[in-house]
Amino acid sequence: MHPILTNAVKAARRAGSIITRASQDVGALKIRSKTYNDFVSEVDHAAERAIIETLQDAYPDHGFLGEESGDTNPDAENIWIIDPLDGTTNFLHNFPQYCVSIALMQRGQLTQAVVYDPNRNDLFTATKGRGAFLNDKRIRVTNRIKLQDSLIGTGFPFRDFSHLDTYMPMLKDMIKKASAIRRPGSAALDLAYVAAGYLDGFWEIGLSKWDIAAGALLVQEAGGIVADFEGNESWFETGNIVAANPKVFAQMLQVLDPHLTPSLKTPA
Asked: Judging by beta carbons within 10 Å of its beta carbon (0-12, 13-18, 19+), is residue 106 exposed, middle or buried?
């Protein structure tokens, strides 16, 4: 394992321990609403502090982009992109589908990724150019050829409903074209599941960088494709993302294309 990745794993496991302890008594947690349907608990903050402290001790000159702490040292060559608890709503309802997501961007390129599921003790890792792994075992995207045989993940608009009228026809057509659709509620884990071959593909509108950074690198290192809805590279900036094995990816774009509004197309 790459030395930098080793430290990221240490940080993820430390955060996972905090989350697991808190899950024993979710009702006792202090919770506030950031925006409509967007919740944050003291666990989110404690887990993010643990991650930053661990990584800052090892790399004091690195910057951080965290869901709760925001952007610190944004001009740094190395920036850690952190979601300390992806799937907070699931966590608050004791629905066991959430994770810790940590990625490193070096000079504008994603190079390290960790997605840790503390419920199953599943550790997904990737280093650019070295492949993707689940608990130290190499993983690959599926080799499924047809969308009609594929299990596809997605995420519903739940904070910003401005794209809801666009998303619903997408969902309707994808339901008709794919074998089945799943919406587990943690985008980072959904992407990790594409990398591991549990899902054949995934799409969602308007995700944040910390939702997708680690999972996207996992998919790419597992042999999959990650792009925006037109197959271009704006996915990291826009949060409009499609990830799948190469054969299914192209078919997913065909299903989504008739529903693309100007706001969902690649910026000029």
From this structure: middle
Distance of alpha carbon 238 from alpha carbon 225, whole angstroms: 17
For the CA atoms of 85, 89, 92, 97, what is the dihedral angle to 10 degrees?
Answer: -70
Question: 241 is written with which tokens?
Answer: 């993302």
DSSP 49-69: HHHHHHHHHH-TT-EEEETTT
What is the distance between the alpha carbons of residues 208 and 38, in angstroms, rounded to a whole number? Answer: 13
Q: Tell me the CB-side half-sphere exposure of residue 74, using CA atoms within 13 A.
A: 5
* Cβ proximity of 115 and 218 under 8 Å: yes
Closest C-alpha among 78, 76, 69, 77 to residue 15: 69
Q: Which domains does the chain have, with CATH numbers?
A: 3-139 (3.30.540.10), 147-260 (3.40.190.80)
- The string of pLDDT tens digits covering residues 106-145 is 999 999 999 999 999 999 999 999 999 999 999 999 999 9
